[in-house]
Write a structure and sequence with these properties.
With 651 residues, the chain is of the alpha/beta class. It folds into three domains: 312 residues, Undecaprenyl pyrophosphate synthetase (3-Layer(aba) Sandwich), CATH 3.40.1180.10; 64 residues; 210 residues, Undecaprenyl pyrophosphate synthetase (3-Layer(aba) Sandwich). It contains 19 helices and 17 strands. Strands 15-13-12-14-11-10-16-17 form an eight-stranded mixed beta sheet, with helices on one face. Strands 6-3-4-2-1-8-9 form a seven-stranded parallel beta sheet, with helices on both faces. It is globular.
């Protein structure tokens, strides 16, 4: 407490305050010279841990967090960022002690009255305040205050501050689906629906927004008879529902997608925030800093990192000879650790590497891109098979692989055979070799032929779930169409459309089989190469227990987090592991999955440090020679990544 008091006094002193102002202006000018994000989103986490670490009350921790909110908003405005979205309070937070909830709401009311008044922060920078969420869960007096302060800022300017209060993203998606179904039952004015929604500064996801006519209303109610155009009013056809239809009914309708989402406190998950909006194109940055400690330095470094990444993406499109030579050199290096370890790694050594971890994911998911080289598909399937083997050895029951275009779904028999061969390298002829089920949403389960010998009762099984972009937003659109048709026929009430119903229906849609499911013969040497995912489907099926669609852990083998179209509904509380700045694990022509990276992800999920058994082995002579060659190329101007040395494996 004494340190905090001294820090506040020191920063408030006149010379320090002046220096801080000039420094902030200098940093913001530097940022404005590069590309500036249009939409910035924050998950402001860590107030309670900050209070505990500094031995202060939780209320004081939240108060310091509110002070940082005002400072960060000002920095955003100074950078000319047009839209800022902040996750203030989750619906789940109502489970906290009532005294803490009341304290947060009082701080919210006081702080936003202060920044919304004439001459306040929002007025000075021309920003409109918008409050979104399940506002019906708030106290009536707070609801009145929200309406008052949002009305006050309505004409301040074009910048927008979105405050997500009493909010979860799944509730927002459910509300958008419910609104769409309602608009399929009764007429709406289609020509300016989006404009009407954008003008609404208080967006309550608990109600059907009043942009349609009630069942008892006339088309002429509240309208000048001369201005009525009956053709403008029509019910939406369920078959005309698209992703844009749902997007127009989200709480952030009218805003550009977030360019950056920042989460503080060291948690690596989205916590049910902007799942729909961040599913593609948003760069998600996780920071270990607690929110009350998030200042201009952290803000500057975060935006700077995004700007550098934008420049790298532009440079990647240029044909640079040195870069291509370096990639070819490193493509050779990629296979060296695999060759060295191919005869070393066993199921026992892998189980020893993870021994003692307090938890392991039941469902592991991974995003893997398909390269453009001639052998890209072969390399991708080999990586998937390797991940299947590692996951099976670790006792993980479900592995889902997201490949955006869905190419893997067209080569299921071939992928199955490669996975079986890879498992045989680890398990040999052991009766403990797990049974593999390859599952394609809507198409069915590919598994071992019933004609094969029965599997040992003690053996385990692993399900490989193949996902693509069509399993995300498009599936939600298909579900909305089905619900709209049910509502039109009187089989479904609007009030019945909620998170639980959508979750159950999505599980049913993904698990259903639109075709029969084939039985793959493990001993067959004939592997189908048809590009038609529906080709050669037999007339039998094999049962499987229901899938757990939401992963416990998501691997992204990239220096930053970009979900790239990953199904948004399924990653509400999923832990995310990515490479960060460790570029040495992203090598060669494609992003190559390394065992060390796989192991690091499991250790991060378990909250443990890497054990000695999982450390790198000393460099052998060939590896040292290659490292010397790599150093020579790097000093010659050819950029190649550091060699990823093989893991130490023990039997």
């Amino acid at each position: 407490m004494h340190f905090l008091q001294f820090s506040e006094y020191f920063q408030a002193s006149t010379p320090i305050a002046w220096c801080s102002i000039y420094l902030e202006e200098f940093l913001m000018q530097a940022l404005r010279k590069g590309p500036v994000p249009q939409h910035l989103a924050f998950v402001m986490d860590g107030n309670r841990r900050f209070a505990k670490n500094h031995n202060i009350s939780i209320a004081k921790g939240h108060q310091l967090g509110f002070d940082v909110v005002q400072k960060i908003l000002e920095l955003c405005f100074m950078c000319d960022i047009r839209v800022v979205t902040m996750y203030f309070f989750s619906i789940e937070n109502f489970k906290r002690p009532k005294s803490e909830v009341d304290s947060i709401m009082e701080l919210f009311e006081y702080s936003f009255r202060h920044i919304s008044k004439h001459g306040g922060l929002l007025h000075r920078y021309g920003a409109t305040l918008r409050i979104s969420g399940r506002l019906d869960l708030l106290e009536p007096n707070l609801q009145s205050t929200i309406q008052e302060i949002t009305d006050l800022t309505r004409d301040y300017g074009e910048k927008v501050v979105n405050i997500c209060l009493s909010y979860t993203s799944r509730d927002e998606i459910a509300s958008a689906i419910r609104q769409t179904v309602a608009d399929c039952k009764m007429p709406v004015q289609t020509d300016n629906y989006g404009d009407r929604f954008r003008s609404d500064l208080v967006r309550d996801s608990s109600t059907i927004r009043p942009f349609y006519l009630s069942p008892d209303a006339s088309l002429c109610d509240h309208l000048d008879e001369k201005s009525v155009d009956i053709e403008q009013f029509m019910a939406i056809s369920p078959q005309n529902i698209t992703t844009e239809t749902l997007a127009d009914r989200m709480l952030t309708a009218g805003d550009p997608p977030p360019d950056i989402l920042i989460r503080t406190s060291g948690a690596y998950r989205l916590s049910d925030f902007l799942l729909w909006q961040c599913h593609q194109g948003t760069q998600i940055l996780f920071r270990t800093t607690l929110w009350p400690d998030f200042r201009h330095w952290q803000f500057f470094s975060t935006i700077r990192e995004w700007q550098q990444q934008q420049r790298k993406q532009k440079l990647m499109t240029k044909n640079n000879t040195k870069r291509l030579l370096g990639q070819r050199f490193h493509a050779t290096l990629d296979w060296i650790p695999t060759i060295v370890n191919s005869n070393r790694r066993t199921i026992k050594s892998m189980q020893k590497d993870i021994k003692g971890l307090r938890r392991l994911p039941e469902h592991l998911s991974v995003i893997l891109p398909l390269g453009k080289e001639y052998d890209a598909l072969e390399r991708l399937m080999d990586q998937v098979a390797e991940m299947v083997a590692w996951s099976a050895c670790a006792g993980i029951s479900t592995l889902s692989v997201y490949e955006k275009n869905g190419t893997l779904k067209s080569y299921v028999p071939m992928l199955y055979q490669i996975a079986i061969r890879k498992l045989t390298l680890y398990y040999g002829s052991s009766s403990e070799k797990p049974v593999v089920h390859v599952f394609v949403p809507r198409n069915g389960i590919y598994c071992l032929s019933p004609a094969q010998p029965a599997v040992n009762p003690g053996s385990t099984g692993i399900t490989l779930l193949l996902l693509s972009e069509s399993d995300g937003r498009e599936t939600l659109v298909d579900l909305t169409k089905s619900l709209a048709e049910m509502a039109q026929s009187g089989k479904l009430l609007l009030d019945d459309i909620n998170i639980e119903l959508i979750d159950a229906q999505l599980n049913e849609i993904v698990s259903q089989s639109s075709h029969s499911m084939p039985a793959i013969h493990e001993t067959s040497n004939s592997i189908g190469h048809s590009n038609d995912p529906d080709a050669n489907l037999p007339k039998s099926s094999t049962g499987l227990c229901p899938l757990k669609l939401e992963p416990d852990l998501l691997f992204i083998f990239a220096p930053y987090v970009n979900l790239d179209g990953y199904p948004p509904w399924q990653i509400r509380l999923t832990e995310i592991f990515y490479m960060g700045g460790e570029s040495s694990s992203i090598t060669g022509r494609d992003k190559v999955v390394k065992y060390r990276t796989f192991l690091r992800g499991l250790y991060q999920y378990a909250g443990a440090e890497m054990s000695d058994a999982a450390r790198l082995i000393p460099e052998s002579a060939p590896i040292c020679v290659l490292a010397a060659v790599q150093y020579y190329l790097s000093v010659s101007g050819i950029k190649v990544n550091a060699i990823d040395r093989p893991m130490r494996q023990t039997d």
